[in-house]
Design a protein that fits this description.
The N terminus is likely disordered. By secondary structure, the protein is α+β, with helices and mostly antiparallel strands. It is 18% helix and 42% strand.
Length: 285
Amino acid sequence: MYKPLLSLLLALPASGLLAEANTDLMKNGQALKATHIAKIEQAATPEIKGLAIAQEADRRDLGWLDSTADMQMILTNKQGERSERQIRIKSREVGGDDSGDKSLTIFDSPKDVKGTAFLSFSHIVSPDEQWLYLPALKRVKRISSSNKSGPFMGSEFAFEDLSSFEVGKYTYKFLGNEKIQDQDVFKVEYYPTYKHSGYSKMISWIDQKEFRVLKTEFYDRKSALLKTLTYSDYQQYLGQYWRAHKMVMTNHQSEKETQLLWSNYQFKVGLNDADFNKNSLKRAR
């Protein structure tokens, strides 16, 4: 049954074939988006609708395989004093019943943190696995599952903030429609299922067109507002994947702030499991 189809395709002019294939892909993609949007609109309860929004945001970011990027981290204390760090990030998309993405964070400067490397294996059901290599001690330290709410390298990001977003890590509730930066957004509350989380809940504002997170509020274990993370300067890669080039985490309780400025994104560069091996953390360069 394949030969007649192949003969038909080969008989078409190349430009016509590519145009027809691209048109079909666009139609299929638009139909799939319409189906998922309808699922969100028809959700029977706020919980089902919140989950459907999270699933659609996740679905739109599937298939990037692996990536590398540079990052500048700017720490600002209560007095307004700043310090800067230069960092490289490697990431790999992983799928499975309990497997999330993998990431490797490498510090290049300043001198006192150069060579520090952080490896994270995200999971959905079981606790994330994380390791930190400290060159001054020349040893790899495993981050315990009960200590992931602690600050990462003096920043306002906790270790658990550095894990990839996995839908199954939370339960959800749709809170309503709002506007942020003249964009229509979904307001969704979600609750960590991870018992050692430092948060009682989070609230995210997700734009209704591209399903990009624009802002997230983090509430501590006493349900008080702890931090707000804002995302801006989004850019699209490979015609599909959106990445915020600026993230600002503001700690309302300590009055400190951490900015992450991203650049030099590269996708599908051929990373594999060997690039995310805890035994090679000491050699991470």
